[in-house]
Amino acid sequence: MRYLSMLAVAIFGLPALLGLLAPLVPQLELPNHFRLFLLLGAMMLLAFDVFVRRLRRPWPAIGLVGLNLALTALPMTLAALSPPMPPVNGEPMKLVSFNLWTSGRHADIVRFIEDEAPDVVMFQELRASHVAELLPRLKPIYRHQAVCEGCNIALLSKLPLSSVDTSGTLPLVSAIWTSPKGTAYRIAGVHLPWPFLPERQEQAVNKFIATINGWSEPRIIAGDFNLTPWSWKLNKLLWQTGLKRHGSFERSWPVVKQFKSAGPISQLPLPALLLIDNVLASPDITADHFETGEDLGSDHLPIVARMTLP
After folding, report:
1. What is the distance between the alpha carbons of residues 29 and 231, in angstroms, rounded to a whole number?
2. What residues are paired with 308 via a beta bridge?
3. How many Å apart are CA 65 and CA 82, to the nearest integer?
4. What is residue 136's DSSP assignment?
5. CB under 8 Å to 63, separation ≥6 — which residues?
6. Percent of residues, the chain, with pLDDT higher than 70
7. For the chain, which residues score pLDDT lower than 50?
8. 146/154 Cα distance (integer angstroms)
9. Model-level pTM?
């Protein structure tokens, strides 16, 4: 049992330590995404040492729990510092962001959007069928549509959009959205490279930071960041832009339902485990509610956020 415990310390401790090097080595970001699971594993190891091995001083397990607890809590603590007060007489805004992946359930997606009735919709991973069929079906409600087919992102709005950027120089679509009271906001939908391309993801985040800091308007950014709340890159983006992240413990990915070679197991639903679909906003914009929506055939769940604008 002693050697089993030592092996568990290495399994849960080494990734935690390697994740600290992510600012220097982008490839080591991956363990940070699974920080909650590393913490859970460390807590199970501590319970094993106390109740099975009967150790009175299980210092390695205690240290491992403390390390992962601190690294898990730090982004949450920083996000909670100086929380913005809801603006007096603020304007409500509702948005939906959804990575469509290969979902062809257009009727279900339209029904979901109509039921939620958001002011703004952001789609990622558009396919030709989405552009040809889904977007036209939403056109009667969302007359203003900005589409970057080169980066497979769409931004839909009930209200007019101006200063639209669909250039594809970054994996985002941005526009000026003017609220019913006449205040201009910069809204953007984003789809950053996935974690297994860490250097490309790092480059995109750095360019994204420079772009955001060049905007003068209050801003709301949502989409598939391919980054969890515990990732170094996402927290770096927040620190260097002054944006606030909304939603931490929701789970939007991966919603995988079928494995063709798994026999009866293929019909078992697999729950989403991680939040990689995020909403970021200027500090004076609050999120009154943040949740994930129903399974619509993608490997992501849609996210729904109700905001209050100053």
Report:
1. 7
2. 92, 286
3. 27
4. H
5. none
6. 92
7. 260-261
8. 6
9. 0.91
Q: What is 225-287 written as a DSSP string?
A: -S--TT-HHHHHHHHHHT-EEE-SS---B------TTSGGGGGS-----B--EEEEE-TT-EE
Structure tokens, 221: 């950014």
Locate the domains of the chain by residue range: 2-77, 91-309
Residue 119: partners with Cβ closer than 8 Å, 6 or more residues away: 93, 94, 95, 157, 158, 159
Please state which CATH class domain 91-309 belongs to.
alpha beta
Q: Write the single-letter amino acid at 29.
A: E
Q: What is the pLDDT of residue 82?
A: 58
Q: Nearest-CA neighbor of 233 among 176, 272, 278, 297? A: 278
Q: How many whole angstroms separate alpha carbon 115 and alpha carbon 148? A: 26
What does the block give as tokens for 110?
């339209």
Q: Which amino acid is at 219?
A: R
Angle at CA 247, nearest 5°, toward 308 and 215? 60
> Cβ neighbours of residue 105 under 8 Å, at least 6 residues apart?
296, 297
Q: Which residues in 37-60 are b (16+ Cβ under 10 Å) and which e?
A: ebbebbbebbebbeeeeebeebeb
pLDDT of 87: 65
Burial of residue 239 (number of CB atoms within 10 Å: 0-12, 13-18, 19+): exposed
Q: What is the pLDDT of residue 296?
A: 94
Q: What is the pLDDT of residue 53?
A: 83
2, 17, 13, 29: which is closest to 231 by C-alpha? 29
Which pLDDT value is given to residue 9?
80
Where in 100-246 does DSSP place strands (E)?
120-124, 144-148, 153-157, 161-165, 172-178, 184-191, 219-224, 244-246
pLDDT digits (tens, 9 = 90+) for 204-217: 999 999 999 999 99
Q: Do 23 and 231 contact (CB within 8 A), yes or no?
A: no
Angle 173-175-177 (CA atoms, 0-180°, nearest 5)?
140
